[in-house]
Write a structure and sequence with these properties.
By secondary structure, the protein is of the alpha+beta class. The protein has helices spanning 3-21, 37-48, 54-61, 65-77, 96-128, 144-157, 179-186, 205-215, 258-273, 279-284, 289-299, 304-311, 315-328, 334-343, and strands at 52-53, 81-83, 90-93, 138-142, 161-166, 190-196, 218-222, 229-232, 236-240, 250-255, 275-277. It folds into three domains: 3-98, Arc Repressor Mutant, subunit A (Orthogonal Bundle); 134-284, Endonuclease, Chain A (2-Layer Sandwich), CATH 3.30.870.10; 289-343, Winged helix-like DNA-binding domain superfamily/Winged helix DNA-binding domain (Arc Repressor Mutant, subunit A, Orthogonal Bundle), CATH 1.10.10. Helices cover 53% and strands 14% of the residues. The strands form two sheets. Strands 4-10-9-8-5-6-7-11 form an eight-stranded mixed sheet, with helices on both faces. Strands 1-3-2 form a three-stranded antiparallel sheet. A hairpin with a 3-residue loop joins strand 8 and strand 9 (236-240). The termini are far apart.
């Protein structure tokens, strides 16, 4: 066999072995970052054959050199390839573990900028539109898929705060992981979640809630919550058409209006009554055993002198401690303090 034929056969075998080294779906490797199969093929070929020219790559891929040159230019632009030092016609591929990660990070930043621009545009358009008719302040959302879409959209567009009241019945029969919350928390959106305490006993629900708390959510619970809703940036709310129905696949979307203001006030009222959950907030609200005794006797109608005698402290100390507990419970009277402590499950 002639030497040049031997070289051609050896090169063909080497190329075949190189292609066998990559999984079949690697031809679409760069699709997720907006590049076409030709870019993936040229990049993979250049990884296997560094210091190649466009003509070399075109011969191996059996495609037009002009098409390869365009693909190489795109790879240069996005940082997946570079020219070999000392030459203008030979190229090397950037290491995939570095270049692809950098490209994905850049695309993610661009998508986030697009999201922010779209949000700003929506606000400007809303300011330019005439006041909404009463019928436009509330929309009916029907079907599990439509409800899921609106739940995700509200959280994707949130920029400041999301308020959630979580209670059964659930859209899919049981609580599910709220991936949109983790993404929003990572963007700096504040979350406050108010949970129905019995519902937290469902399998896996408490673990899901604690994962959200660990990610930054502020959480509280109530012995029983007879409503559920989500409010995003105090500009939109989504809640069931009925709080008593077992079916939750019909919701109403409430836009900025006095009704939405009332829903926010409702949330804040329930939030003030809730028992903090999670290590950080619970520690701040923790009560000592002696405080529990004070609250118990206070709820039982004991006077300061009787409480002081029972605890072995001065009457002045009891009065000061009661004032501190009232402030902690956001109560203006002793009766309210006892009621608030009972609601939080302290008594």
């Amino acid at each position: 066999m002639e030497p040049h034929l031997l070289t051609g056969v050896a090169g063909s075998l080497f190329r075949q072995r190189a292609r066998d080294h990559y999984p079949a779906d690697m031809s679409t490797l760069l699709d997720p970052v907006g590049l076409s199969p030709i870019h993936s093929e040229v990049y993979l070929d250049l990884l296997t054959h560094p210091r190649s020219s466009a003509t070399d790559i075109a011969g191996r891929l059996n495609t037009a050199p002009g098409r390869v040159r365009k693909a190489l230019q795109k790879l240069l632009d996005v940082g997946l390839a570079s020219r070999l030092v000392g030459t203008r016609t030979n190229f090397v591929a950037a290491p995939p573990e570095v270049a692809v990660d950098a490209l994905v990070a850049r695309q993610t930043q661009e998508l986030e900028r697009l999201r922010e621009s779209a949000h700003e545009l929506a606000l400007r358009v809303r300011d330019l539109l005439p006041p909404a008719e009463p019928s436009e302040l509330i929309q009916l959302v029907e079907g599990a898929e439509a409800v899921s879409h609106h739940l995700a959209r509200l959280q994707h567009h949130a920029r400041d705060e999301v308020l959630i009241i979580d209670s059964p019945p659930y859209l899919y029969g049981k609580p599910v992981v709220n991936e949109e919350e983790f993404q929003a928390l990572a963007r700096g959106v504040r979350y406050r979640g108010l949970y129905d305490a019995p519902a937290l006993q469902e399998a896996g629900h408490l673990e899901q809630m604690m994962a959200c708390v660990a990610a930054g959510e502020q959480a509280r619970s109530l012995p029983r919550v007879r409503m559920k809703m989500i409010i995003a940036d105090r500009s939109q709310a989504l809640l069931p058409l009925s709080f008593s129905a077992a079916e939750t696949r019909t919701r109403i979307l409430v836009h900025a209006s006095p009704l939405l203001d009332a829903l926010v006030l409702c949330f804040e009222s329930l939030w003030a009554q809730g028992t903090p959950l999670g290590a950080a907030e619970a520690a701040a609200q923790e009560v000592s055993e002696q405080d529990l005794k004070v609250l118990s006797m206070l709820a039982g109608g004991y006077k300061d002198r009787a409480i002081a005698r029972a605890l072995g402290v001065t009457e002045r100390t009891v009065g000061r401690r009661i004032q501190d507990l009232m402030a902690q419970l956001n109560a203006t009277t002793r009766f309210q303090a006892g009621l608030a402590a009972a609601r939080r499950g302290w008594l």
